[in-house]
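Issue: copy button drops trailing tokens. Both records pasted manually instead:
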Amino acid sequence: MKLRHNKKRNTAFLYEALIREVAKSVISKDVERKKSILSIIKEHFSAGSVLTKEIKLYKNLHETRRLDIYTAERLIHESKSDHSRLNKEHIFESQTRLINIINKKLGSDVFANFVPSYKSLATISQVFGEDVDTKERVLLERKLIGTMVIREGAPPKLNKMPHIDGLVYNTFVKKFNDKYDSQLLPEQKKLLNLYLTSFSNNGIEFKVFLGEEINRLKSKISMITEDKEGSMGDDIKRKTKAVLEKLEKFKKTKIDNEVIQGVLKMQSLASETSS
């Protein structure tokens, strides 16, 4: 079943495309473009805006996993009900303003950004849509439920890290300190603080910092490698190359506890090596 879908009228796609544009500007070190994109995001996805309300409903269905079928069906029903109460004219007008400002300030290439979750977001948009007939909507909802429910016999997922409170955060920091027997570096404290607060907002500042920090670590480790190349053995060179590859992989990996601990280790490594 293939339904036509206008991605420019998919609020979640617009947001994700802008987030990826921020990442590209960080990589290219285009500070002015990064500021412009963040300004657009803050203006159009501010707390209480209709686009932010719609984004939260997308997240209800896109990010929720491992439910029983009854709860999944109930969540879809309630999310559709909440979405039906949003002012559609207001959504359309807000999207139009956002699309126009993207075209004017950033260029239409933003809409060509690859968003890995696009198919899922398109399905949710059609489930929310009022112009999809009954049969198609039921089939789309069934497809969506398939991504949300626990499959029979599936092993429990242990590494998912949902919202964390202050106690979990303090425990996380304590474990890291105990393991490495040192105080956290300023950049490590900033990483953890931004990670903590990212659960109560869209996490834009955290994502920008993480991208910049990974680039900084790659640059620093590469410079250290070049400076000491003559005195480095083949084994050290291989390990350094593996570190750089891992940092690059972090940029493309879903952010979780493992990624954060990996970046923390790299921060310690870069600091120790340079000193």
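Record 2 (pasted manually too):
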Amino acid sequence: MKTNQSFFALLLCLGCCFFINCQYSQYADVTTTQLEDNLWILEGSDNTTMYLVEGIQKALLIDTGTKVKNLDSLISHITRKPVMVVITHAHDDHAGNIKYFPEIWMHPDDTVLLKKSYKGKINFLRDGDILDLGGTQIEVSHMPGHTPGSIVLLDWKAGNCYSGDAFGANHVWLQLKPLSPLQTYINSCRKMEKLMDAGISKVYCGHYVYIKKPYDKSYITAMRELAEALINNTAPEAKPYSSKVGCANPMFVTNGPATIVFDPDNLNHNKK
């Protein structure tokens, strides 16, 4: 009898595994991994990154990537709870799949970058807003620099920050229009350092594939110090950036783990 029970239990287990694999096999353009309790990462084949945070009552999808077909269906296989969709900024590699959702949340300063083709409802988030998922509260913090409306999302209970491209993934792009003063980015780095002093310990960036781990405070500090060196003309020698994205002649500087890509024509009057 025990042998039969064990056999049927094995069959049930194999059947469940087969069912789960079948569920996700149709999404060949994305890899889904559970990173922590109630936290999943979705990594697109085009090196885009999305995070799904699940509370007791709701779930939060952070960014939508670009090339993941039927993203809404994939999310419904991970969680059955109502999903809020927040974009950390409006660049296409983070907001390219908003079409699958009837409404999104974002900072108003990035509406200039949002595709006009989106017909859903746009809800605006401000610095200090709280998203209550039930048992998990996510705080919105405005971190301009990469874009005017870049935000990070703070899960104080877990010690996590979901940063989009606010601080990059080993390098941050500050050469994209509309440009912000370099001092704006420095102020955002300082703000993030204070948040980490207050209890945030892990920064999950918007292109996780390049590092495969969350950042700690030392990375944010390295970014701030490099930006300050640029303003003070004490940075290492700048070199031409390999891709002419955002401006005619982008340059980059590197110091330790931090790299900043910038527009040299904009640097002087960004020193404010």
